[in-house]
User: Fold this.
Amino acid sequence: TRLAMSLSKTVYVTRPDVDSSGLELLRKSCNVSTWSQPLPVPREELLRQVAGKDALFCTLSDKINADVLNAAGPQLKCISTMSVGYEHIDIDECKKRGIRVGFTPDVLTDATAELTLALLLATNRRLFEASKQVYNGGWKSWAPMWMCGQGLKNTRIGLYGFGRIGQEIGARLVPFKPSQITYTTRSERATEAAKINALRVSFDEMLTESDFIIVCCALTPETKEIFNESAFKKMKSNCIFINTARGGVVDQQALCDALKTKRIQAAGLDVTTPEPLPLNDALLELENIVLLPHIGSADIETRKEMSRITARNILAALSDKKMEAEVA
Ligand code: DGY
Assistant:
């Protein structure tokens, strides 16, 4: 029967705690096995489990390279990642072998833009630093200049990257009345920029003129550690640096030095290298930083829908149909 035929398709899911709505979609027509712990699957286990599978459901913590594809075998038809970023997947290797790659853009754009604003506000108005004072006795009295931060009004905000997420961050910044929103991209985005009156500037101009810099680009060979020592040196001393994209776009040692020496004002990071940050990392000792554990897309409905899109991408690939979102 048809059901028996399709049930012969096998899928390995690298997490047991993917929302059940996604797993149920897969289970209707495939034989699904999952890793047992709510942590990244150990490499050896992944290599063992992927053998003979038709599809792999993975996340950004799984490095999918030639070793994994070799271990899987020639029947592997698709890799579907529950993320918009896919720098953890060797796309060229997949292409060479005709393996299709699915991902989850769009669905997490609003959640990520929202978290970026939350992180920005927490950093510039020093929320965590101030809140700590309530608990540790540091709060003695209301005081005229105590715990003051840099407001967003009349400031210049630079968006590094102006794709889906950058544009939604930009839209959310407008009500805070900045004097100018700028964006830095390879190619002009005139129509999108016009909606929020954003000005396209060079990387150098963004670095030297911005009061806030928000990273919202993909991690590519071109953007890897683009925020390095020389970049931080060019920034204004009141500059606040926000990154909700990927830790890899930052030379983290250079950022740490810039914060320690007050070369720049503060930073808010939802992404770091590595993740999680070791508890003895120098960044954890700084006052002028807000660190979050990569929760940009972590709103409940978003994560549920991400699990379903990842599953539907697999089902589409297994029946030679168009995926909802496929890496070109
Ligand atoms: C992504 O999707 O790439 C985010 O980093 C996690 O949702």
